[in-house]
């Protein structure tokens, strides 16, 4: 049943708007609609690869933009184009530049062409990689495609406001917050609320009581699957009603429901919801119902395939721009001719932006093509036109819409065609141009996996560890405790969160006493929710804070791998240096016992977190050195501490909070001449024990601790060792083909060390299954001293069987 729109007098937020303001919203709404229509056409014309658009969501996004203030943050999804333009953080030319994948951040500031269209972000960093002031700008964290993947980060963006408001030590950081008044606005589609990350994030927000305002755009479908398959009661607000707080001052959410075509009520609801968030730090769920999607989900197909005719007819009748037009006429705010002219002008604006964006994208490629044709035609002249080379060049010349890959592909094939011919000026010019194109393409498409600022890990000054002559021997956990204490005293932006981190000082006591010393805002317990623990850290790091987020055991990292991989690890890359989140993730692993407390899933981690650093220290002093380095850097990292090392004795450094360890530099733990043993973490003790036993039978083993896997041996120390020994074993606790295979590839391939070997390289790993419980389970499932001894002995026996007779 159709419900009438509110009159202006019934929606107080409208009274603050002039006629010009209202018609400006109408204009922006129609510009956005025409941008969606034009974007779809560009894909079908072959000028873009794929398109996903925000048509049907224009009015709620306009209302949200009017509640969004300087200093606020957005964590949204790929249909928020109207909001971004209304907030002044996107132009229509930039919108089309992203659709075309323009690789220049001047053209596409959000992603420099690295993400498909609809992935929005503001540039939080200046050209030197430093944070720009955030309180004077409207901010958007960088979008990701995985459904509900924006939710964990949204928790962190809102949590930062709580810290900035409640921790007086943070009040001087006025570039990042004004008394915590900033609201974190989130957006999500109704179907994506079925994801576990959505539920986990809302529960966390309710517990934390943070200024998070999440809007659900509810168009009843998730691609082709309707709400009856998606959501209990077919309503996320009904399902989540238990979050509703019982009264002012009580914990919980405020929940609002509003129709997506009701312009006056949308304005009023967003103003009230944002005020509750901003002033009281109460989270809000705003369910925007009866939203339409005129073009269907994306350019992948038509919604006519799965929506019944009655639904399609209803959507046409309830299109939000159609409804706003009816309301404007009914209220006498504008006449038919005035609205028609606005609609016509909106179409012209989009056409002009589209044309300008295509020219800005395509003209440089055409120019590069012409430069290539000059040298290629010279190459043809040098080698004759009656051959395949001339046809190759002609193909590039007649290509109507070349891309850079076409140019590089042609240059490569052209040089291949003249291989073996005498060198000519044309050949040399072609080679130079190819090298230039590849260098430019590397910047366009491969740069900024890591920070390029002065605060990058590689730029942190190395400070050697120092010990007093009478340095006390303490438990390893006490070294970490002293390290964290010194850093917390040095920088008020540092805080730690995680399960059991606060009151008991984590399960292994490295934070013991720190909550009492620094307060609950600095050392904080969380619920069992690894995904949003990471998200809490990502969002806070985006806002200038220095979080340490703890995942209690390495096995539990599986719960958090999605935000680590899809969000944190690729943040610098997908924004081409426009955003950073220097989050440190702390966990512990190796040498545990039992199927679910024994994993060393390094292979999974290595594949998932490129863009983060991976530190695998063998003891707590090494871990402290990495923490000191990372807390002075602007890059994210995962540090895996050895679970069986917290109570082993270590000397306490005098500069425990100042000494730093460089990343990517292995350490030789024992020198040897016959074979090189490469490992890390808890395996170092096993390998050293094996090396000692090997020495008893005349085998001199060199033991190398890689210390970090990402980056890996940047100075090629392992290759230097192989020049001496000629033999190598890679050992760890991961599955076969895991991190040992990775280390072997790094050494043999990247370091070109295969030619240094006198024997086949070998790997010693855990079994393919997870270890069973108990000491015997550990011994027979993971590498042990005897396994390594026997492997090395057999390798040496192959070389000198008389010297090393068979054992078994």
UniProtKB/TrEMBL annotation:
<dbReference type="Pfam" id="PF00676">
    <property type="entry name" value="E1_dh"/>
</dbReference>
<keyword id="KW-0560">Oxidoreductase</keyword>
<dbReference type="InterPro" id="IPR029061">
    <property type="entry name" value="THDP-binding"/>
</dbReference>
<dbReference type="InterPro" id="IPR009014">
    <property type="entry name" value="Transketo_C/PFOR_II"/>
</dbReference>
<dbReference type="InterPro" id="IPR005475">
    <property type="entry name" value="Transketolase-like_Pyr-bd"/>
</dbReference>
<dbReference type="InterPro" id="IPR033248">
    <property type="entry name" value="Transketolase_C"/>
</dbReference>
<comment type="function">
    <text>E1 component of the 2-oxoglutarate dehydrogenase (OGDH) complex which catalyzes the decarboxylation of 2-oxoglutarate, the first step in the conversion of 2-oxoglutarate to succinyl-CoA and CO(2).</text>
</comment>
<protein>
    <submittedName>
        <fullName>Transketolase</fullName>
    </submittedName>
</protein>
<feature type="domain" description="Transketolase-like pyrimidine-binding">
    <location>
        <begin position="474"/>
        <end position="648"/>
    </location>
</feature>
<keyword id="KW-0786">Thiamine pyrophosphate</keyword>
<dbReference type="InterPro" id="IPR001017">
    <property type="entry name" value="DH_E1"/>
</dbReference>
<dbReference type="Pfam" id="PF02780">
    <property type="entry name" value="Transketolase_C"/>
</dbReference>
<dbReference type="Pfam" id="PF02779">
    <property type="entry name" value="Transket_pyr"/>
</dbReference>
<dbReference type="GO" id="GO:0016624">
    <property type="term" value="F:oxidoreductase activity, acting on the aldehyde or oxo group of donors, disulfide as acceptor"/>
</dbReference>
């Amino acid at each position: 049943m159709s419900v009438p729109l509110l009159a202006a007098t019934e929606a107080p937020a409208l009274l603050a708007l002039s006629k010009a303001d209202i018609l400006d919203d109408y204009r922006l709404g129609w510009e956005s609609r025409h941008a969606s229509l034009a974007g779809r056409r560009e894909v079908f014309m072959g000028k873009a690869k794929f398109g996903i658009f925000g048509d049907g969501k224009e009015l709620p996004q306009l209302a949200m933009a009017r509640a969004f203030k300087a200093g606020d943050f957005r964590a949204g999804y790929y249909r928020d184009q109207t909001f971004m333009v209304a907030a002044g953080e996107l132009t229509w030319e930039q919108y089309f530049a992203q659709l075309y994948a323009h690789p220049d951040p001047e053209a596409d500031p959000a992603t420099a062409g690295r993400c498909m269209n609809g992935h929005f972000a503001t540039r939080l960093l200046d050209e030197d990689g430093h944070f720009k002031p955030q309180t004077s700008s409207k901010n958007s964290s960088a979008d990701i495609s995985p459904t509900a993947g924006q939710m964990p980060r949204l928790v962190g963006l809102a949590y930062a406001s709580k810290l900035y408001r409640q921790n007086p030590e943070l009040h001087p950081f006025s570039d990042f917050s004004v008394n915590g008044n900033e609201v974190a606005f989130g957006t999500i589609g109704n179907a994506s609320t079925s994801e576990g990350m959505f539920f986990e994030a809302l529960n966390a927000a309710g517990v934390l009581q943070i200024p998070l305002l999440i809007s659900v755009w509810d168009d009843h479908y998730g691609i082709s699957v309707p709400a009856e398959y998606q959501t209990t009661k077919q309503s996320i607000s009904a399902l989540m009603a238990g979050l509703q707080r019982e009264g002012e001052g009580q914990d919980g959410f405020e929940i609002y429901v509003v129709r997506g075509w009701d312009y006056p009520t949308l304005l009023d609801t967003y103003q009230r919801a944002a005020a509750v968030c901003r002033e009281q730090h109460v989270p809000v769920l705003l369910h925007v119902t009866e939203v339409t999607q005129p073009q269907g989900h994306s350019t992948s197909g038509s919604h006519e395939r799965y929506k019944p005719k009655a639904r399609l007819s209803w959507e046409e009748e309830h299109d939000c721009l159609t409804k706003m037009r009816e309301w404007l006429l009914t209220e006498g705010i504008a006449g038919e001719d005035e609205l028609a002219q606005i609609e016509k002008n909106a179409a012209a604006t989009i056409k002009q932006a589209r044309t300008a964006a295509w020219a800005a994208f395509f003209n440089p490629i055409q120019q590069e093509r012409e430069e290539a044709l000059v040298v290629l035609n010279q190459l043809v002249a040098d080698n004759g036109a009656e051959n395949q080379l001339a046809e190759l060049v002609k193909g590039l010349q007649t290509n109507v819409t070349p891309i850079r890959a076409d140019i590089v592909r042609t240059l490569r094939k052209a040089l291949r065609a003249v291989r073996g011919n005498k060198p000519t000026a044309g050949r040399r010019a072609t080679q130079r141009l190819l090298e230039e194109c590849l260098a430019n393409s590397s910047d366009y498409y491969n740069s900024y996996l890591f920070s390029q600022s002065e605060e990058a890990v590689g730029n942190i000054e190395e400070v050697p560890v120092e010990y007093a002559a009478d340095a006390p021997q303490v438990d390893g956990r006490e070294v970490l405790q002293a390290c964290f204490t010194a850093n917390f005293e040095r920088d008020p932006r540092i805080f730690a969160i995680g399960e059991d981190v606060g009151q008991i000082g984590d399960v292994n006591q490295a934070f013991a006493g720190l909550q009492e010393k620094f307060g609950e805002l600095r050392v904080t317990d969380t619920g069992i929710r690894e995904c949003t623990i990471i998200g809490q850290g990502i969002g806070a790091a985006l806002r200038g804070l220095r979080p340490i987020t703890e995942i209690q055991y390495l096995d539990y990292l599986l719960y958090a791998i999605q935000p680590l991989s899809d969000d944190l690890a690729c943040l610098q890359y997908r924004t081409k240096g426009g955003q950073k989140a220097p989050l440190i993730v702390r966990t512990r692993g190796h040498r545990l016992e039992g199927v679910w407390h024994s994993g060393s899933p390094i292979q999974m981690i290595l594949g998932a977190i490129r863009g983060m650093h991976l530190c695998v220290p063998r003891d707590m002093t090494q871990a402290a050195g990495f923490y000191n380095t990372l807390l002075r850097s602007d890059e994210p990292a995962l540090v895996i501490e050895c679970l069986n090392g917290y109570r082993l004795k270590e000397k306490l450094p005098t500069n425990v909070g100042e000494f730093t360890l460089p990343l990517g530099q292995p350490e030789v733990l024992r020198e040897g001449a016959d074979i090189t043993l490469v490992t890390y973490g808890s395996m170092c003790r096993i390998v050293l024990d094996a090396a000692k036993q090997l020495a008893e039978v005349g085998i001199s083993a060199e033991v190398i601790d890689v210390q970090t896997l990402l980056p890996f041996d940047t100075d090629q120390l392992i290759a230097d060792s192989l020049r001496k020994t000629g033999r190598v074993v890679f050992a760890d606790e991961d599955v076969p083909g895991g991190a040992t295979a990775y280390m072997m590839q790094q050494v043999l391939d990247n370091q070109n060390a295969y030619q240094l070997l006198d024997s086949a390289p070998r790997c010693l790993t855990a079994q393919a299954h997870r270890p069973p419980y108990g000491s015997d389970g550990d011994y027979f499932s993971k590498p042990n001293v005897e396994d390594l001894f026997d492997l090395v002995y057999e390798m040496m026996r192959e070389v000198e069987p008389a010297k090393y007779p068979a054992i078994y």
